[in-house]
C-alpha cells in the first residue's frame, strides 16, 4: 500500500499517468547510496528481483541506459552489441545528474530528462516483478517487468 502522504518522485508520477500498478518501498539510508545487494536486503526482496540502472556513452556519442540485476556487472561488449554500437563506456559519475536528472544511487529507468534507448537484462522475462529505483536514494518501486518495458520503451538482451 502506498502512503498517501508520501512524496511522489517524477518516476512515480509517470507510472501513475501511464496507469501502471506499482508498490513504493522505502529503506533507511544515509546521505550516500548503498550497493544494490544491501538494498535488496533492506527492502526484504530476493536479490535477483532488484535491478540497478546504468548510464553509458557510445563511441559515437549516443547515451544508452542498461538495467541489470544488482548482483551482476554490465558486460560492455555485450551491451554495445545489443545496441549495435562498436563500443560503450560508463559515463562519469559527475555527468549522471546533468544527463538524467537523477543522482548516483537514485537513478531510475523511468523519468529521465530525455528518453534514452533502454535495455533490460533478459532475466526480467522470468520474473513476476522487479524493483528499480523510484528516482531517489532510499526508495524503490516494485512493478511487473512488462509494464516497465512498456513505459520505458525498453528491450531485453543478454548484457551481463
The helix count comes to 5
Shape: globular
Poorly predicted parts: none
Q: Which structural class should the secondary elements be placed in?
A: alpha/beta
Measured as a percent range, the helix fraction is: 10-25%
What is the topological layout?
Elements: H1 10-17, E1 23-26, H2 36-43, E2 51-58, E3 63-69, H3 76-82, E4 88-90, H4 96-100, E5 118-121, E6 130-136, E7 139-143, H5 145-152, E8 155-157
Parallel strand pairs: 3-5, 5-8
Antiparallel strand pairs: 1-7, 2-3, 2-4, 6-7
Protein described:
This protein is an alpha/beta fold and 160 residues long. It has a five-stranded mixed sheet. A three-stranded antiparallel sheet has the order 1-7-6. A hairpin with a 2-residue loop joins strand 6 and strand 7. Helices cover 22% and strands 26% of the residues. It contains five helices and eight strands; from the N terminus they run αβαββαβαβββαβ. The longest helix is centred in the first third of the chain and has 8 residues.
Amino acid at each position: 500500500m502506498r502512503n498517501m502522504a508520501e512524496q511522489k518522485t517524477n518516476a512515480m508520477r509517470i507510472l501513475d499517468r501511464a496507469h501502471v500498478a506499482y508498490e513504493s518501498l522505502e529503506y533507511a539510508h544515509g546521505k550516500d547510496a548503498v550497493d544494490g545487494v544491501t538494498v535488496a536486503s533492506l527492502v526484504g526482496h530476493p536479490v535477483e528481483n532488484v535491478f540497478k540502472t546504468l548510464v553509458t556513452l557510445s563511441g559515437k556519442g549516443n547515451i544508452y541506459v542498461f538495467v541489470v540485476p544488482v548482483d551482476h556487472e554490465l558486460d560492455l561488449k555485450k551491451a554495445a552489441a545489443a545496441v549495435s554500437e562498436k563500443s560503450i563506456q560508463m559515463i562519469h559519475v559527475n555527468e549522471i545528474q546533468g544527463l538524467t536528472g537523477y543522482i548516483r544511487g537514485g537513478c531510475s529507468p523511468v523519468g529521465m530528462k530525455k528518453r534514452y534507448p533502454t535495455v533490460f537484462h533478459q532475466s526480467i522475462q522470468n520474473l513476476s516483478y522487479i524493483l528499480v529505483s523510484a528516482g531517489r536514494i532510499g526508495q524503490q518501486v516494485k512493478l511487473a517487468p512488462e509494464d516497465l518495458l512498456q513505459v520505458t520503451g525498453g528491450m531485453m538482451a543478454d548484457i551481463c
